[in-house]
Amino acid sequence: MPATKGEGSASMRMFGSVARSLREARGLTTDELAARVGYSKSLVVKIERGERMPPPAFVESAEALLGDAGGVLRAAARHLERGEFPSWFEEYAELERAAACLYKYDAHVINGLLQTEDYARVVLGAHCPTLEADEVERRVRARLARQSLLTRAPAPQLAFVIEEWVLRRPVGGREVNRRQLERLLEAGALRNVTVQVMPLPHEAHAGFDGPMTLLETPDLRLLAYLEVQGRSVLVDQRNEVSKLNQRYAMIRSQALSVGDSAKVIEQIAGEL
Fold it and tell me: CA 51 to CA 3: how far, in whole Å?
C-alpha cells in the first residue's frame, strides 16, 4: 500500500517503531538521543514516526548507543525500502518542497529543478559508480516531481544563476541540449522565476567557491545548502548564512541581467 503524504514506507515505520522502543527502554528522551548521535531532534522524531529514511551513520550511532540492541537496528535497516532521494538529500528535499524562496547558483550542470527529462537522464546516467538502469529511472522521476515547485501555489520566488559554460556543454548531444535551453527560457518566462547567466568573459566573480542554494522557509528562516560529491551540508548558523547571502547577492549583481541572459541562451540554442 503506498505511503500517504508525510508518511514513509511500511519498512520505515517498522524501523521507527523499533528505534523508539529501544530508546524508551534505555530511558532516553528524543533530545538526549539526538544529542548523543549527532543529529537534530526533528530528524530523530521523523525517523521514529517512519517519515524519514535513517542515514546509515544514524543507524550505526544509535546501535552503538543503545548497546544491548543485539544488532536489531542494523537488521531492521537492511529491510528498509529506499526513499525517493538519497539519504543525504532528503532533509533538503523536504525543506525545498515548502520553500517560500530559493536562490541557486550552479557551476557544473543545469539545476535539477530546471532539467528536462532527457537531460536529467544523461546526468544521472553518468553517475560513478554506475547506477542500475531502474535506479536511474527512479531518480529521474523523483527529480521531475520536484519541479512542481515552479508552478506551486502559493508561488515561491525562485532565482537561478548559471555559468555560461554549463549552457555550452552538449549534455546528451545537440538535440537534448537545445531542448534544455528552450526549457530554461520557458522557466524564465514564469513570473516567479528569474534565470541569469554568468558570462564567460568575466575574469573573476564571487562564485569561485562553488555552487550554493539559499532557502527561505515559510516561517522566514533563511538557510543555506551546500552539496559536493554525494555529501551535503545544511547551514543554519546566522553568521554563516549571512556570509553566503552576501556572496549570492554579489553573484547576482555580477551576472547578466534577466533580459541579456535570455538573449545569450537564445544565441547558444540557435548555434545548435
Answer: 9
- Topology of domain 10-77, per CATH? 434 Repressor (Amino-terminal Domain) (1.10.260)
Q: Please tell me the class of the 87-110+152-270 domain.
A: alpha beta
Domain boundaries, the chain: 10-77, 87-110+152-270
First-last CA distance in the chain = 46
Q: How far is CA 17 from the centre of its chain?
A: 27
pLDDT at 81: 62
* Residue reference for cell 521523523: 46
Distance CA 179, CA 185 (A): 10
CA distance 152 to 155: 5
- Residue type at 23? R
Asked if the model's pLDDT at residue 255 lies above 70, the reply is yes
Cell 544521472 belongs to 124
Gap between the Cα atoms of 261 and 164, Å rounded = 9
3-state SS of 183-218 is: HHHHHHCCCCEEEEEECCCCCCCCCCCCCEEEEECC
pTM over 0.90: no
